[in-house]
């Protein structure tokens, strides 16, 4: 019985260490993240587990930001899931979908407050993506599903804004 319990404990520890830690952020944390990464092109995607277009576009986001990582491109997935989904459902969903990018959960309820801080035109619908290069002032915002070719073109434009 003792070897079984030790094996079970090891299995639980391994599984819990593999689960993605999803921090709870306020919109001010997103703003700080942008300020703390002035020399990076940041792709900040607002999504939710229940949003089919969101889930559909994320694999291309991961692939492209990995492809341009050496050029200073980073992806941050900002979950707008319901509080009842935080953190377990978001983490298990991300694991099942093989989302290996950093994920945070936005702990905000007042869209009239946090949406304009991302972009003044943002109505709050998702998917929504901000591509920003703080060093150069480059900023592009999309309140729609983005095709991979459009995302790549926008990343390249952001990188060229440093020339």
Please give a structural write-up.
The chain is an alpha/beta fold and 163 residues long. It has a single domain (21-160), classed as Glutaredoxin, CATH 3.40.30. Helix content is 44%, strand content 19%. It contains six helices and six strands, in the order αβαβαβαβαββα. It has helices at 2-18, 27-35, 52-67, 88-96, 111-118, 148-160; strands at 24-25, 41-47, 73-79, 103-106, 128-133, 138-142. A six-stranded mixed β-sheet has the order 1-4-3-2-5-6. β2 (41-47), α3 (52-67) and β3 (73-79) form a beta-alpha-beta unit. It is globular.
Q: Looking at CATH, which topology would you report? A: Glutaredoxin
| Main sheet: strands, sense, barrel | 6 strands, mixed
Our count of helices gives 6
Helix content estimate: 40-55%
Mean pLDDT: 91
Question: Strands of the biggest beta sheet: in what spatial order?
Answer: 1-4-3-2-5-6
Q: Please give the number of β-strands.
A: 6
Annotated CATH architecture? 3-Layer(aba) Sandwich
Look at the structure and give the CATH class. Answer: Alpha Beta
Please tell me how large the radius of gyration is: 17 Å
Shape verdict? globular
Strand content: 15-25%
CATH-defined superfamily: Glutaredoxin
The helix/strand order is: HEHEHEHEHEEH
**How far apart are the first and last residues' alpha carbons, in Å?**
66 Å
As residue ranges, the low-confidence spans are: 1-18
Number of discrete domains: 1
Oligomer: single chain
